[in-house]
Amino acid sequence: MNVFASIGALFLTFLGEVGRLTTFTINAVTAIVRPPFYWRLLAQQFMRIGWFSLPVVGLTAFFTGGALALQIFIGGNRYGAEAIVPQIVVLGITRELGPVIAGLMVAGRVAAAIAAEIGTMRVTEQIDALTTLSTNPVKYLVVPRLVAAVISMPILVGIADAIGVFGGYIVSTKSLNFNGAVYLKNTTDFVTNHDVISGLVKAAVFGFIIALMGCYSGFNSRGGAQGVGTATTNAVVSSSILILAANYLLTSILFNT
Amino acid sequence: METKIELQGVKKRFGPKVVLDGVDLKVGKGESVVIIGGSGTGKSVTIKSVLGILRPDSGKIFVDSQDTTHISGRAREAVLKKFGMLFQGAALFDSLPVWENVAFALIQGRGMARRKAREIAIEKLAKVGLGPEVANLSPSELSGGMQKRVGLARAIAADPEILFFDEPTTGLDPIMADVINDLIVSTVKDLGVTAVSITHDMTSARKISDRIAMLYKGKIIWQGPTASIDTSGNEYVDQFIHGRAEGPIKMEVRG
């Protein structure tokens, strides 16, 4: 077996995949602005993607905020800098942990669900059936999910920010002997609009990635139950990796470093 | 007879595998043509090419003398409004109740009010022998035969000019298969539509067709009136219709 041949083949497969994904993305994005619009489906997707993700995102944000407060307190203690807890918690949550953790949780929940649903529709010919009924499957299936995810994610992350800070507040006041009023004042004095907004911009991008990878994997699933399973796994793995990569990229752009 | 659908030298390959190797076929207006052939001979690919779900690599496809080989977007949607299709597994949308499946083309395609569309859906369900009580059920609550009937009702809901049937009797018991055959014959006759079916069920093929075409290795190797199928003089056709393992057609055990 020629090593170079297999590396080359792998590289070509990769390029093909990138090409297909790019075409799919362009089709999906241009379909957003072209009628018909499926408002009923959009509302349904807001429920599924946004509303039903609230408990998961809220709980993870709460515990992350709490753990973050503990860690900063312990770490800061080494320099006698434990009073910095509220500032670092709010910064960490709004800039990084809020969007990334919400993004990863929603990727696990929503990208998987989208890929499984659309993948099943693909292998049972329901997507072909849409075409024969003069309905563009991209407009009917992808656009509502994409729009709902891009709008839902910043709202979810806004809520996650608040809950995360609240988690830090609870831990700090209940077990680290912080004064509640001082903690909140330090938080609000320190955090800037830019901190919060940069997190929300990230969230919108992550929402796009989640819905896109879910739909793309579903559309390209082949060959029955196993194919749908593979599509679901691919959706979660690829959207998680893309979220983390995009997060780094966005951080360097948004904070100009 | 006026030609409704015409395929000229349609070729399609997937990677190294040649599926269609120059298919030529004419279907007249109001005619019912059945394409027979073994599994993997390209029957599904043929009708999916006509529908534009797959793009042929070369050759031309005409619908009502309009070249539809390379159209897409709105032009494609306009052509597809002439078609109705019954899928092999019925392909009902499991997220929608039965009546919304049937009324799908009316609500999404024509912007009909839901209340009105529901009435028409119930009318179409009656045509395939289903009562209004199934209208609110989910497709997963129905048996295979009932799903096929709902699929048929959905295919005829928007009054198409052309109906495609993909293996309409596969997976059904012989009696239900005959019920579906009768339904196909009566809908085709009543609506005066052009029908193209693909099947390997010869009982069904004989019953629903005016003309039969046999697809083998990506080409139409024989076609003629249904009555002449037993005297085709073509040994490939003879082997297929009598279901013999021995003959000129060699099954590729290794796909």
Corresponding CATH architecture of the domain at 1-74 and 196-255 in chain B: 3-Layer(aba) Sandwich
Shape of chain B from CA axes?
globular
Tally of separate helices of chain B? 9
Coarse morphology of chain A: elongated
Structure description:
- The complex is a heterodimer of chains A (257) and B (255).
- With 257 residues, chain A is mainly alpha-helical.
- Helices cover 86% and strands 0% of the residues of chain A.
- The termini of chain A are far apart.
- Chain B has 255 residues and is an alpha/beta fold.
- Helix content of chain B is 35%, strand content 25%.
- Chain B is built from 9 helices and 10 strands.
- A 6-stranded mixed sheet of chain B has the order 6-7-8-3-9-10, sandwiched between helices. Chain B has a 4-stranded antiparallel sheet with strand order 2-1-4-5, with helices on one face.
- In chain B, helix 5 (114-127) packs across helix 6 (144-156) and helix 6 (144-156) packs parallel to helix 7 (174-191).
- Chains A and B meet through helix 5 of A and helix 2, strand 6 and helix 4 of B.
